[in-house]
Amino acid sequence: MSASLHEQPRLGARGARFGYLALALGVIAVLAGLYLGRAQDDGFRRFQHAWLFACLFFLSLSLGALFFVIIQHLTRAAWSVVVRRVAELLAANTPIVALLFAPLVILALRGDSGLYPWVDAQALAADPLLDGKAVFLEPRFFGLRCLVYFGAWALLGRWLLQRSLEQDGASDAAATLKLERRSAVALIAFALSANFAAFDLLMTLDPAWYSTIFGVYFFAGSVMAFFAAMIVLLRLLQANRMLDKSVNVEHYHDLGKFLFAFVFFWSYIAFSQYMLIWYADLPEETAWFQQRQHGSWAVVSLVLLAGHFVLPFAGLLSRHAKRRLWLLSFWAVWLLCMHAVDLFWLVMPSVEHQGALVRPMDAACLVGVGGIWLFGLTRLAAKAALIPVNDPRLPQSLAFENL
Amino acid sequence: MAEPLHAAVESRALFGLVAEFDDVGSVTRAARAVRDAGYERFDVYSPFPIHGIERAMGLRPTHLPWIVLALGLCGTSVALLLQWWTNAVDYPFRISGKPLFGIPANIPITFELTVLFAAFAAFFGMLVLNRLPEHHHALFELERFARASDDGFFLAIEAGDARFDAASTRNLLQSLTPLEVLACHDSGQSLKPPIGVRAGILALVALALLPFAAFASVRWSTSASAPFHLVKDMDSQPRFRAQAGNAHFDDGRAMRPDPQGTVAFDALIDDPLLLTGRGGETWSETLALPLTPQFLQRGRERFGIFCAPCHGLAGYGDGLVAARALELQETNWVPPASLHDPIVRSRPAGQLFDTVRNGVRTMPGYARQIPVEDSWAIVAYVRALQRSQNATLSDVPAAEQAKLGAQ
């Protein structure tokens, strides 16, 4: 099996222009969001939730990419080489999310309990359910943990990209071998950090509630959203005549299989979490679902059940659906939207007690963080070829065919 | 010597022509060429699956996924029907207040059966669609063909193909640069497994039926001997039944009188007032223990744990259990008494204590859960509750009266 690379695609000047456009749009959206948050007149409480929601959405895409790249090295996967660079760029883009997330940590350190109610130590001590968690739910300790999480992701993403770029210009496969050897450690670091970050950033919004599977739930949704984002990004690049000679339906087919698998994995984990809490029926655990099963939040829950599981499961089940690119792209966009609904459903009930209400500032924050995140992505991509041009398994990947 | 042997070979039915190739690339190219030449009855044999070979051979997509889907859905419905019938219809048994047929509880079984049915469909469907197991195949007669499971790549065009012609097909195969082209003859060996294998399978099937035959024969026959008892569990224990005889004791009885000096649980009444709430023949009007703030506080806590679920925190008989029973419209539910009912209020403290210990009407006694001191503490708190709900302004301390007046 041999095939050769017919292109050395780079993002080029058009990509850079797109990046600056995204940045400009993002900054305007952030300012609009801040204005709307101020108009809410609740000490930016609602805005902080919207901001967390937007940061988590783009963070989850990068975390999914980090997991994907590590797994590819760990299993010495050949099929994915042509799409791996795009994933590496996504994975290396966490520092910009760290920068955007930092204000929320600073607010917590300054004693603003608008987002995380446990920042208020007195409220914590007054509740016997929370008093025992006081050691962990401590703003300075929280800040330190955030530093560790984002630091680990930044280092991992940067390391994976740098070694891969090193391979681009190398005459032997030493860089690739090093990536393969160290990916096991990287995977452990990723698993621990992503798990605890989900507890810290999301679960503590309701400090009384706990679910040990929650980290896996966040991970499952993140990886699913990453595969959806990959499909959309690759289609966009190909529409702009990049990667169109290297990435073909076979690679999309495999990305589609992963997308399908993680749609189901998310559902499996979401249901496991729900069933155990439903069955045990303990008041401190059911309260979280109680909130999401009443009023318009119940409608959102049902939308998730249908849109995040039943419909895409049926839609992506067939081989033909994964090989028809327009259909696959449709489900990818659909699932990205559903991932946003999922995160909204995780974050917002702790501030929107009356019901599921999407405010303009949610859209502004999503566009704002997204624009800045995309700008970061184009800056990273400007330095690199969009394919690991000298990867030892590139010919195998180019000639890849599904069974 | 060679001539007669050759003739003998030719006399057997020709299965087809087999070309051997060196590697994946050449056999894939050959498959493409044979497909383009219009052949349909041909196959490729390789030691491992070749990516893309089905397109090179022009194979139609398999129907297997539809079979798997159908049987998977079948598994889903079987699981749901099974659980609905057993749990909600045939033997309804409510467990911890859950619905008889609650979807969340039934999903794990449904999931497992769906996967099981789909996996069976995939495995057995694959066998059936491939017409497997097949005991004998003409290609096995070629000695070289054994390498198909090691390092050989083969392409065989069957003689049954409409386009097959011994000469032109051989030319086509030769043009594809194989290592060798061989004619494959079918020895006409029976496709059935040898008699030994068939007899073995039959014997296994017969053996598998034996236990069922044994069950059936025992089920419809009578016997004077005791039933089979493979697993004894606790059916027969080395113990004596009540009222039975036992030769080991002088009086010949299995039931033993209490040894001298035995005092049964709560049989010792050294302080009747404290332990029964009675002073002589009548209920005590006062508490048997001194009233202190700590004592009352203890009573409040115990009341919250043991009494409030039914009687409610304020004692009006509106606890969570009562509210739930009302919501479910339970027909045989007797509502708990309100502690502010005039009859309850008029009861002496000793009688309330007795109620806590031994229960009244449908209320069970709590003597086993609540120690004597705590029972009195609860009585003290109930008295306080009753007074709080029927208090006059003069009951309020003077300092607090002023505040009430201000409101």
Q: N-to-C terminal Cα separation of chain B, in Å?
A: 129 Å
Strand proportion of chain B: 5-15%
Q: Oligomeric state of the chains?
A: heterodimer
CATH architecture of the largest domain in chain B: Orthogonal Bundle
Main β sheet profile of chain A: none
* Poorly predicted parts of chain A: none
Number of helices of chain B: 14
| Mean pLDDT score of chain A | 94
* Count of helical stretches of chain A: 16
Tell me the domain tally of chain B: 3
Task: Write down the Rg of chain B.
Answer: 44 Å
Structural class estimated from helices and strands of chain B: alpha+beta
Total domain modules of chain A = 1
Quickly name the level 1 CATH class of the largest domain in chain B: Mainly Alpha
Shape of chain A: globular
| Portion in strands of chain A | under 5%
What is the name of the CATH topology of the largest domain in chain B? Cytochrome Bc1 Complex, Chain D, domain 2
Largest interface by Cβ-Cβ < 8 Å: A-B, 14 and 16 residues
